[in-house]
């Protein structure tokens, strides 16, 4: 045994440590080199047979060997343990209980629209659709709204450079439907509307309406009142009251505005209904014969009713929401109350 033998033995030990793939392999390496009957004790044993002048150097090298191989073994063991726990983390443990992330839910505005579709489908209505970007013709002219009507003012309407506009109401869908089908017609058209309104607790520049249109031979104001009242009871419960007030719209004659009694306070008066006990839902009326003429329907042969509905207003009284802006902030803590 000389100093050179120890260097070779150390290289061997390092190679064995690198090759070890498990903690058990490493333990075998440790026993092989440093164990009580391992190679290092053999070296120490041989010390007494060495040339006396070389003994101190061999002893020093042997100690170095013990230290360095010991450290290499410790480091390799730590690396193996870290790797094996990382592998465990990547492993899918089917016995761990699942983490519940909660179910998503529909936005209150969507809930009202879906409920309205369900209710009107019981009365034989189907759903129609129209574009958000409309022409002046569909949004105004065809609806008998003349060029000097205040609703055409740039203060109220978002006009586009193209000369088109963002629809201010869902009523243009009435025209599109009647142009493409013969009577009888029974549709509702939910959708977004846009107005240059200053946002406050009850106004938003972007809101939703549901348009309704029923055209047949003998549709009457009684049908309109009956169907709106049926809708109100289905949507808000049997205690809600509906009232109709005379009004004017260019595309209906006669026209009404209609209100629901406030669902939040039961009609007594509260902040949501501004102490009046009533919430205005929108307008309605009998389709103006001039509108029938525009779409090629015979005003002598058919009659019809039409109505609008403010979806946010219904959502506000149905769910007791005091400020329309809350509906658009997408605060999940607020929205998750209306499951
Ligand atoms: N489009 C009207 C509005 O936005 C609401 C309306 C009134 C719709 C009367 C109708 C109707 O269909 O007949 O204020």
How would you characterize this protein structure?
This protein is of the alpha+beta class. It contains eleven helices and nine strands. The protein has two domains: 3-89; 108-338, BirA Bifunctional Protein, domain 2, CATH 3.30.930. The protein has helices at residues 3-19, 23-34, 39-46, 55-90, 108-122, 136-139, 172-180, 221-236, 289-295, 311-319, 332-335, and strands at residues 126-127, 133-134, 165-166, 185-194, 206-216, 242-249, 252-261, 278-287, 303-307. It has a seven-stranded mixed β-sheet, with helices on both faces. Strands 2-3 form a two-stranded antiparallel ribbon. Strand 6 (242-249) and strand 7 form a beta hairpin. The structure holds 3,4-dihydroxyphenylalanine (DAH).
Radius of gyration: 41 Å
Given as residue ranges, the uncertain stretches (5+ residues, pLDDT < 50) are none
Bound small molecules, deduplicated: 3,4-dihydroxyphenylalanine
Structural class: alpha+beta
Largest sheet: 7 strands, mixed
Q: What's the overall average pLDDT, rounded?
A: 92
Read across the widest sheet, the strand sequence of neighbours is: 1-4-5-9-8-7-6
Looking at the overall shape, the CATH architecture of the largest domain is 2-Layer Sandwich
The sequence of SSEs as H and E is: HHHHHEEHEHEEHEEEHEHH
Provide the domain count. Answer: 2
- Work out the helicity level: 40-55%
Count up the helices. 11
């Amino acid at each position: 045994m000389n100093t050179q033998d120890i260097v070779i033995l150390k290289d061997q030990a390092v190679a064995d440590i690198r090759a070890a793939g498990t903690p058990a392999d490493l333990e075998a390496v440790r026993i092989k080199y440093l164990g009580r009957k391992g190679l290092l004790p053999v070296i120490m044993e041989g010390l007494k047979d060495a040339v006396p002048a070389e003994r101190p150097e061999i002893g020093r090298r042997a100690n170095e060997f013990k230290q360095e191989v010991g450290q290499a073994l410790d480091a390799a063991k730590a690396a193996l343990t870290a790797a094996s726990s990382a592998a465990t983390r990547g492993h899918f443990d089917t016995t761990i209980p699942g983490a519940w992330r909660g179910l998503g839910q529909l936005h209150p505005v969507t809930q009202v629209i879906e409920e309205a579709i369900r209710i009107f489908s019981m009365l034989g209505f189907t759903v129609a659709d129209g574009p958000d970007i409309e022409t002046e013709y569909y949004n105004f002219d065809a609806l008998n709204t003349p060029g000097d009507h205040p609703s055409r003012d740039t203060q109220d309407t978002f006009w586009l450079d193209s000369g088109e506009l963002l629809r201010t109401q869902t009523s243009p869908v009435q025209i599109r439907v009647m142009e493409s089908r013969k009577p009888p017609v029974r549709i509702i058209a939910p959708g977004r509307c846009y107005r240059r309104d200053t946002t406050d607790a009850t106004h938003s520049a972007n809101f939703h309406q549901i348009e309704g249109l029923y055209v047949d031979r003998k549709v009457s104001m009684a049908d309109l009142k009956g169907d709106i009242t049926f809708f109100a009871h289905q949507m808000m419960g049997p205690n809600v009251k509906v009232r109709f007030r005379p009004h004017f719209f260019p595309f209906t004659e006669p026209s009404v505005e209609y209100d629901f009694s406030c669902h939040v306070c039961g009609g007594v008066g509260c902040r949501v209904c501004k102490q009046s006990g009533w919430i205005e839902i929108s307008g309605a009326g009998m389709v103006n014969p001039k509108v029938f003429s525009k779409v090629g329907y015979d005003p002598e042969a058919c009659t019809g009713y039409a109505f609008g509905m403010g979806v946010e207003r219904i959502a506000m009284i149905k769910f007791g929401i005091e400020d329309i802006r809350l509906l658009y902030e997408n605060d999940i803590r607020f929205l998750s109350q209306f499951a």
